[in-house]
Task: inverse folding
């Protein structure tokens, strides 16, 4: 996060630390607003890799799990980037404008992922740059968000993943769960924040992460790299895997897992009571599998009514077969909840 953007947010009441906004003064009220109202959130915890050049489309098509060749400037998609063993190294939201393709991922993973991608550019006419500070991103959610955006954009996205580009106001992307993402250059972003924050409640990163969790959208971090093939994290269910495209790293394993029905773990949405925030990589234990770990926390955040909501990859055999406990065989019991899409 640039010092200018950080100072801009601090002047408006934000608590900022390590490229993340903790809150705007009242974390509990902000979380309730994320559930019941309409909010705006700076997404400084996410980074952007810009992929430009004559061969950008072909290059990305050969690296990512989605079909980049059908990705137009009017549509975004989720995608996975895998190792040769089919395990996810990162996951992205991907979109395109006239200048480049943008890969949005956890900011903490960006340097290593950009370096790894650059290893495979070789003689291709492709340029990879960190665009995190030249394109500022914030999220909007809630029924009033659409009305606030109508004052800025002459046309709004009509369906999830539709993208609208506006010369004056930047790029607007429709996300699952009645949400939008706005991407703009720094000077434009400050102007838009002034206008939108007048009618929407500013909230910190935990609120946006909670909304992502409730919508079943995982975010891979360092603690969970190379632990899951895409299907374990439901990536094919949110449109991040195309099984008809050509080769990409790990493609054979991903395809075999799908077509041979060998998916033994799936991501679930759950709630757990307690005072300890679960962390990515924390283990879960099923009462039906003795003392063996049966799952891994992917993401977790505080829930508006107490306790924590989380996404976790679990052994299918342990889901619904008995009690699932957090961190130990006698830890707090998880309550498995319904995801907003069919599994």
Result:
């Amino acid at each position: 996060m640039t010092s200018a953007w950080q100072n801009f947010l601090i002047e408006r009441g934000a608590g900022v630390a390590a490229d993340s906004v903790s809150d705007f003064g009242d974390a509990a009220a902000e979380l309730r607003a994320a559930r019941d109202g309409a909010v705006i959130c700076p997404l400084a915890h996410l980074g952007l890799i810009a992929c430009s050049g004559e061969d950008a489309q072909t290059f990305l098509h050969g690296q990512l799990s989605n079909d980049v060749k059908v990705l137009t400037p009017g549509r975004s998609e989720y995608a996975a980037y895998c190792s040769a063993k089919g395990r996810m190294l990162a996951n992205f939201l991907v979109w395109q404008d006239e200048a480049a393709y943008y890969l949005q991922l956890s900011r903490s993973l960006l340097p290593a992922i950009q370096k790894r991608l650059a290893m495979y550019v070789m003689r291709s006419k492709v340029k990879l740059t960190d665009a995190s500070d030249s394109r500022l991103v914030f999220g909007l959610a809630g029924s009033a968000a659409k009305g606030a955006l109508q004052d800025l954009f002459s046309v709004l996205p009509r369906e999830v993943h539709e993208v609208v580009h506006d010369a004056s106001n930047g790029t607007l992307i429709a996300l699952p769960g009645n949400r939008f993402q706005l991407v703009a250059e720094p000077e434009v972003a400050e102007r838009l924040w002034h206008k939108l924050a007048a009618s929407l409640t500013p909230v910190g990163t935990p609120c946006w992460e909670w909304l992502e969790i409730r919508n079943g959208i995982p975010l891979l971090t360092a603690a969970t790299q190379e632990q899951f093939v895409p299907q374990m994290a439901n990536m094919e269910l949110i449109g991040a895997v195309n099984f008809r495209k050509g080769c990409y790293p790990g493609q054979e394993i991903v395809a075999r897992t799908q077509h041979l029905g060998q998916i033994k773990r799936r991501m679930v949405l759950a709630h757990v009571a307690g005072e300890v925030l679960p962390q990515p990589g924390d283990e879960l234990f099923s009462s039906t599998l003795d003392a063996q770990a049966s799952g891994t926390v992917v993401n977790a955040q505080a829930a508006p009514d107490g306790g924590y909501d989380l996404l976790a990859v679990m052994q299918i055999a342990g889901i619904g077969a008995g009690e699932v406990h957090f961190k130990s065989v006698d830890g707090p019991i998880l309550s498995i909840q319904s995801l907003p899409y069919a599994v």
